[in-house]
Amino acid sequence: MSIGTxxxxxxxxxxxxxxxxxxxxxxxNQVLPFAGLVLIMFAFALDDDILLERVAGGLVxxxxxxxxxxxxxxxxxxxxxxxxxDSIRVAGVDPxxxxxxxxxxxxxxxxxxxxxxxxxxxxxYRVRVEPASLVLLVTCLLLATLGLAFVxxxxxxxxxxxxxxxxxxxxxxxxAIAPVLIGATKATEAAFGISGMVTSEGWPxxxxxxxxxxxxxxxxxxxxxxxxxx
Amino acid sequence: MSDLGSIVVTYVITFGSILSLVALTIHRGxxxxxxxxxxxxxxx
Amino acid sequence: MYxxxxxxxxxxxxxxxxVATPATRAIGLLAIATMAWVVVSGLFLTPEDAIQGDAVRIxxxxxxxxxxxxxxxxxxxxASLCWLVKKTPTLILDRxxxxxxxxxxxxxxxxxxxxxxxxxxxWGTYWVWDPRLTTxxxxxxxxxxxxxxxxxxxxxxxxxxxxxxIASLAVLEIPxxxxxxxxxRSLHQSASVLRPNGDIKMDGLMLFTLFSGVIAFxxxxxxxxxxxxxxxxxxDVIEEKGLxxxxxxxxxxx
Lengths: 230, 44, 254
What we know:
The complex is a heterotrimer. By secondary structure, chain A is mainly α.
């Protein structure tokens, strides 16, 4: 399977997924409100304006992680409902392409989610985003999202193929994405200028995010096929 | 020695678990082993 | 399920309750002997430490269990990778990986408990967010996930394939996680001076006891993995035979 076919398959799968989302609006109508609610719940639980501003970076990414499960399960739920993933596979479609396509669709949906969450943090937790730290923030968002999407597509595909055991997904997913939580939180805090952090302090963490995305990009491309094989 | 309690608990938990696991393994081994003919056992 | 002897038509006259071999018997006896020595020496013969006092006695147990837990993780990862690469039809590597993980989880739990109790005596708290402890806790959860994947059912080959990939991913994940946590905690130069195992000046008998512990627990691990792997083999054979019998019954009966 050449890179050309893999990429072509990926584009087809990603376009299909995004088109389904645009028609059904599940992420827009259900996941975004859920994420916003999580931000509000944090405020109820933590009940301290100064504290909230300080931990805003972490809260944004926690809310993202909680929403990740739903988005990933939705992504594969549309497949296995009528066994669609199985039939594509049996037809000999490049599994690496399916993986990449799923991941790309996830990236788009997650990016929208994260931008909304950051907006929520600006409003609810009173953090500020300076123009100077915008580059850092955008890079952090892109790389972190890539990493999350790769891991989500990999384990999501795996868990989806097992009847009635989708509860396994969080257990497998969370330990794997811990580095993203750590790195993205620190980079975001640097971008928000929390606790006197300077923008330049965020870049090492972005490096960590890049390594993570690379590892799971390659890992996912190789492991997805064998993992969903029956 | 107020430390004595923690130390004893540690040793009891550690060695107790190991010995229990050993006993359980031997017991299960005997039970399962009786149901399988010797020629199917690769280690014999 | 295991002890269900009502299916007695499965036992044949030449089937004997034998899982042990001369090799495992020797290993087992050696393991017990060294463990007994560690208990005696650790509790009674060694002196207390200049700084930690008697708390150091927990170390004679904690360090070996930690070592075995990491060893088990490496064995599971290694066996899984080998299975994926070699693509042999026999499942022995898969069973070794599974057995090692089961025992590893146990040793990891013991490590966390003993470490926690030691921490209470030396630092005053059950837990600190230091890199090694945090990664260990992560490793524990990852193991549990791996074992959950093994328990998913399906054919033995399916099980082997799935768990081998999950284990290989874990081999990728854990160093990443550890590196992230180290970076994370390096920001927190905490006031606590004592590191997890302390900078213990051990000499003579203390050091020897520690090494004996490592050997004792390694032998125990070896024994447990060999036996557990054989148990898993028996279980697979029984299930296979049961399946064959059920198919035959179906053919003859109806």
